[in-house]
């Protein structure tokens, strides 16, 4: 499991600090869902079943790749109909980059936003009869 860990390069007399890629996925997932205009993150069937059982999967819709050049984060989102997709995507990239830099000190090589769907607001408003 140590080969999947990201070495922070900080070694003190107490030991080494390493971050699992799953931690980066969770931070990026939360940062993406904070942006107004993001309806949901794309997940797979198993993640959907787990969420219906009550456990929230914050890493859903996020893929982290550790390369020699740096860290690449791919985010798969559904957006609300009517939002500016380029503007929301830019906000997602900025928020993920800032959250990871603040929480881990890691600078990312790329943050790729994949818009996999558009959803409509299904809330119906009741009209008072006249």
UniProtKB/TrEMBL annotation:
The organism's place on the tree of life at top rank: Bacteria
A Pfam family matched in the record: Asp23
InterPro entries: Asp23 (IPR005531)
Protein family per UniProt: Belongs to the asp23 family.
Protein name per its UniProtKB record: Asp23/Gls24 family envelope stress response protein
Species per Swiss-Prot/TrEMBL record: Ectobacillus funiculus
Lineage: Bacteria, Bacillati, Bacillota, Bacilli, Bacillales
């Amino acid at each position: 499991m140590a080969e999947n860990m990201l070495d922070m390069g900080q070694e003190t007399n107490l030991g080494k600090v390493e971050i699992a890629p799953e931690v980066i996925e969770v931070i990026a997932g939360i940062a993406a869902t904070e942006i107004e205009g993001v309806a949901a993150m794309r997940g797979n069937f198993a993640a959907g079943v787990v969420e219906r059982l009550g456990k929230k999967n914050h890493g859903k819709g996020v893929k982290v790749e550790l390369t020699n050049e740096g860290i690449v984060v791919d985010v798969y989102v559904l957006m609300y109909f009517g939002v500016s997709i380029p503007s929301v995507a830019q906000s997602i990239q900025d928020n993920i980059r800032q959250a990871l830099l603040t929480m881990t000190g890691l600078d990312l090589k790329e943050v790729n936003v994949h818009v996999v769907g558009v959803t409509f607001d299904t809330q119906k408003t009741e009209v008072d009869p006249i």
